[in-house]
């Protein structure tokens, strides 16, 4: 067939049709349940986890150099770090003023710490040990200093000397932490090698907790194809640098990473440097997706800037980009996040302008340092936050029964809080209330727990009914065998075998679609050569595929499908656009690429090739309700077999309808996919231009009518 006007006319018709049917992009739904959104997209906090106690650090004073008997206002300037010691006293690295501010937890100034003999130069980190020693990351002077409790210089740590340190390494300390052994961990600006670890004497012990280099698929392709010389000219890929470091009473070391990292931004390291937080598919299981605190602005990457650990071992991280504070328990389960950006041009208590550091005191009160407002906001746990912490500690300790009442109190305050359902589900599972556990696990979004509960229910049912099932299978099979033997030559079976075949065209065409499953080459050849098949039968099969999609979404077990809302219209629109796009693109390519098939052949054959989706998809959705995740390989095998079967049928359809060789068939498929991509780009461009045109016409109409 030659390139013709009608073919390109169909292409333009497809573009216009798809533009009209293309659904609007849906806004991302909120994943965690501490807030919801109203119809305008504004956040509605269901239950606050923290309440603001007040602001400290905004009215500091110092001796007036012009009048020794008076004081002058001396506000903080661009502070970068905060630390709360064992006595709940607050230390702040006041970077812009080259000093350390020491105050009480209520904000009363105790002193300014400086080194007159060797002044600080833009210090960005501070840490205080239990015995009162003060460590300062003196960034501008490229050193870390150790002071006694009175502020006297005890030791100075500069760039360590070691053959294991690259010559290009620049020692710009940003944050500092000291463990119970006296070992010093220093987060260095631009130090992709990890934390610099020094012993108490300042001897270099190695790099600790380094991040891995993240390579994109393009980088991997370059490594495969480039020569060593070509790859040497590429910009070197380095791991992201660690922004901050903290420790807890158990000696674990916590780091946070921002930059372009999308995973492993928060780490909990043991003494060997092994990360104890591992990603998992369980949404709120023993180890949940803690990698990044996904907030409402899920279209960007959080920039974690600091981490603190409260008295319960919960990890608290602050995101400098979206201004949210996220809380994870000791196992890495996300509990909740809260906060948000303060309005431009105003200060709002509870909201943040530029959070750079945080810490907690012995009462789990949270101190958040803002380097734009030059203040510290103090927060306390609300009743909701206290109940969540109490209940979660019981759950982590394995006392599921003891956690029941606190979790119920949490649900009384916030009926949509998923971790509460998870805690109650674990308690129900422990008490062997498996049906209730299944329901609660589903509410919590935990497919693994749901599957384990169902496994217990199925096992108990099989134990109670095994003899009945085995007897039914045995005697039923034996009875069927006898029936076949005794009636093999009976008149009614012979009459059934010789019954007249229907001459109804539609029924025969539908039978052909199923015969293609066994004899695809003969079936597709019949469509092309014998004019078998009709548009009506193809439309019926397409409707069956659409119905099968709905059945899969509605009937598939929660263990294999987490879809909670089925958009019937959206499902139809997506199926229709994808299928008609394939048909038209394949017809256009075949018209140019020596194809012999007509449009009707492609239309009908493409529909018949989707029959396995009905034959396998519907039974698979039903059978999934008696499977657990331990049989997920069987489910996945059947799903993959269905996909492969459809792919082979499409291949044979193209080959036989267009009379192609194997190589020509592959080329046709490739060109068809490219054409679909071009159609998609054209739809996008025409849709955008049409929208702009209507906007311009509407604005012109308003301009004319308002004058």
TrEMBL record:
PROSITE patterns: NHL
NHL repeats: 119-150
Keyword ATP-binding: no
Manganese among keywords: no
Pfam families membership: NHL (PF01436), Yip1 (PF04893)
Record-linked InterPro entries: 6-blade_b-propeller_TolB-like, NHL_repeat, TPR-like_helical_dom_sf, TRIM-NHL_E3_ligases, Yip1_dom
Keywords, ordered alphabetically: Membrane, Repeat, Signal, Transmembrane, Transmembrane helix
Membrane-related topology note: Multi-pass membrane protein
Signal peptide residue numbers: 1-28
SUPFAM superfamilies per the UniProt record, alphabetical: NHL repeat, TPR-like
Naturally occurring in which organism (per UniProt): Paenibacillus chartarius
Location in the cell: Membrane
Protein name according to UniProt: YIP1 family protein
Major site of localization recorded for this protein: membrane
Bilayer-spanning residue ranges: 466-483, 533-551, 571-590, 602-622, 634-654, 666-690
Recorded superkingdom: Bacteria
Domain Yip1 span(s) in chain numbering: 515-682
